[in-house]
Amino acid sequence: MRFLLVEDNEQLARATTDRLQLDGHAVDHAPDLTSARESIGLADYDLILLDIMLPDGDGRTFLTEQRQARKRTPVIVLTARSEVSDRVGLLDLGADDYITKPFDFSELQARCRAVLRRQGGNAANQKTFGDAVFDSTAGTLTTAAGTTTLRNRELRLLEVFFGAPGQIFSKTHLMDRLFSFSDDVSENAIEVYVGRLRKKLTSSGVQIETVRGLGYRMVDRT
Amino acid sequence: MRFAGLSKTMMRLMLVLGIMTHTAAFGFEIEDQKLYAATNETSVLRIISTTDIDAFEPIILAYQSENPGISVDYTIASSTELMSAIYVEGAVFDLAISSAMDLQTKLANDGFARSYVSAPTAALPDWAKWRDQVFAFTQEPAVLVISERFFGDDDVPRNRQELIELLRNRPEQLRGRVGTYDVRVSGAAYLFATQDSRNSESYWRLTEVMGSLDARLYCCSSDMIRDVASGELAFAYNVLGSYAESQKHATSGFRIIEMDDFLSVMLRTAVIPTSAENITAAEAMVDFLATLNARPALNNLSGLPPIDEVALRSNNALRPIRLGPELLVFLDRLKRDAFLRSWTDAIQQ
Amino acid sequence: MTGRFGRGSIRLRLVGQLAAVAAVLSVAFFLIVRGVAGQAAEDTQDNILAASATAIADALYTDNNAVSLELPYSAISMLGTISQDRVFYRVVADGTTLTGYDDLPSPDAQTLGPAPNFTTFPYRGESVRVATVLRSVSVGNQPVNVTVTVAQTQLGLAEISSRITATATAIAVGFFLAAMALILLAARSALAPIGRLTRSVSRRGPQDLRPVVTDTPTELVPLVEELNKFISRLGTSLSRSEDLITEAAHRVRTPLAAVRAQAEITHHRLNKPEHRQAIREMIRAIDESSRSAGQLLDHAMVTFRADSHERDALDLTDLLNDTCNRLGPTADLKDIDLIRDLPEHPCEMVGDRILLQSALRNILDNAIKYSPADSRIIVRATDGDAYRLSVSDEGRGFGGAAHTELTTRFSRGSNVSDIVGSGLGLTIADEVALTHGGRLEISENTNGVGACVSLVFPKQ
Q1: Do A48 and A83 sit in the same domain of this protein?
Q2: Which of A216, B224, C53, C319 is the 20 to 30 Å CA partner of C275?
Q3: Domain count, chain B
Q4: Is A155 helix (H, G, I), strand (E, B) or coil?
Q5: Which residues in C lie closer than 8 A to residue B333 (C-beta atoms)?
Q6: Partner-chain contact C357 A84, CB within 8 Å
Q7: pLDDT (tens digit per residue) in A97-112
Q8: B97 vs chain C: nearest CA distance in angstroms?
Q9: ipTM score of the complex?
């Protein structure tokens, strides 16, 4: 997935970029409207994350331009405004969703996924490992036994494993990806979700192994 | 102008004719006086009137029966003496009743009458009252009285023109047998004469013709009727109709002719003088008199015809004498002198 | 809104002043009518008196070297025709009374001109109007001055005068009443544009800062222009302060977001549990303050809009769907199933869309926040006597807290101190419900698991 992040705050932009890259997305950063316009001229993006208040203008102007040019690239607005009163306006202008600063990356991710899913399937998001095909946009896992729909946390967990098959992920790392900071869960909670995934993968050669003392990894045992 | 001047001639004549029956302590002469005492007397109503006791007594008695406790002191005087009593002497009377409309009007005009308004007086026709001070209660035309013996079955004159023709056609038979009032003596006669003179030129011609036939002059209706009934007179002109009517049952030999050109109608009036003391009783009497037309039985007794607008309208010849300041005209000293001079010239040739 | 009774009323002033004018005109009218008609009546009497005196003078003649008179009947009768007034006359020749009332004062012949002389004085207990005519009669070639005086009381005149007064009064009162009726009508129609203007302004919603374009009479144009200028200034100032708040929010929230993002990255890289715990607490603090700020703004907005909330026709089913769509991803994060049990048909009511959205979002947000992972939240709308929108979860409930406690600002259930939240959510929902004539109901689920929060709106 290729994202365009239009955000003038350097630190936030950098942190957001880092985090999105961690999820395996390619991110271009535009600090203002001018460079944002340049960027969309140069490349096709799957999703645009758009800040409202930019040094050379209002993000909504850019949004309006996009929609008037009949460009359907989904846009999620990053707003610092009070939610309710602005929401109607933003959605009317053609925004697909919005998120209020400061935001939880998990939520941003979830919203991105929801927007992309609404946009329709994209073959590029299908990842195959062994005999298992994982579609992160549709939220499905296809094995010899058939296609099953994944619950959110299962999906996110699979995203981590499919991002780097064979790599060992610590429980802490997985927890960071799976739970938000407001959730108080013990490290054992991760075992529940790993257990669920294993059940969905039973008829497949793909397995999630426990590497004692280190964590988990996804391997192909066919 | 003083009343004394006006009445000088008349008073002198009255003295000469010896009409006065009393010479009372008053400065004016009265003819008669009668007290109708009530059984439980609470007040006395003092009336001075020109109307005969015979005619007025039924009214007094009926009034007393409706207003018990009121004694009525009824004094009769001639119209000029009545005027003198109230106008000059300031005598105390509660009600002044007179057939001399002009003198009654003068009383009111010169401020000797009290105003009174009640439902009965308000119901009177406008021509039957003046200033709510002079109230008429009879309407009495002046009529021609003829002798049955003289006329027999002959045609009788129906108007003044026919009367003049009769006089001119039969002078020999009529000489000395024509009677009329001496207007110099009688107030009512003077009133009739002056009104006749206003109504028609024929009055003066008639007077002259009667004068040429040595007309006999009378002071009173009763004498004229007596002489007509006896045939001594062929006719008497301007006799008070009501009086002639009242004499019919007692005296025969005369007929009453209401002429059809015009009939002067005299109104008998009542005035409450400013000197009145028993005002309540006087006002009750005025109300009683104003409602006489609702008492036919009483009118038969008194022989006084009440105010009757319907009867008046049904006969075009009836000319009620208007109450009002114009009645003062013939009371004017110079005017009166001139009129009487003319009259005397006409009647005495 | 200003009070219904301000300082003074234009209508009262208008009506009062016009009424005063009408009253003055009525009184003037009354006085003029009475004066003119009264004068006419007096003139009529004077004319008749003069005619009478002249007629008498015309009847003077010389007889035997003396002035004599035959009083003309018509001279007196003409006085009797108009009224029942008393009449007096006196004819004086060369200083001696020829005829008439001796005591009737007669002006000295020397003072009289050719025209009739009129005076008024009391005589025999009443006021009389007197006309005197001077006539010279020659007696034996010697001219003799004769004065003819005719007097009449003024009873008839007084009667006419009182009749005229009554008529003039009736006309004046009628005029005044008619004028008052017209004045009231005129005041109403003249002030109608003010009413229209007031209505056109008061009908507006709180966000409507367009200029007033009601048809206004010329006199109100400056006011409307000033009003529009004021509205535009207000609009500018509002948008300026909105811009300021937005700017401030942006300035605060963006770095906060940056810090949070950095913290999250850092948290990711740290290995020591105590360090991770410290970062987690920092992130929580950031979340809590940001959420509190959001809810405070929401609450301020609810309070503001509740005073003059807009009335849109809206569909509650639609609103619930929107809210679920919006919060779906958040629920997803915890694998919470949002189950919608909504009627097929629209649930229409009139209300403030933004307030209702705010209420629903806060209720659902709370439910998600306090629900355990892998649980269900049922969003249900029922359409009975009233609309009931309920959100029931499988969370820990409210620990028996009373309704009033929960909907009081900044109070939270006693058992949720470990979850980020400002406690304003239910307060906002409660106020929105009251604003719409409805109520907020909170109940613990009967099986002891979870709570149900409902908004109940009576059908209008």
Answers
A1: yes
A2: A216
A3: 2
A4: helix
A5: 99
A6: yes
A7: 888 888 888 888 888 8
A8: 20
A9: 0.85
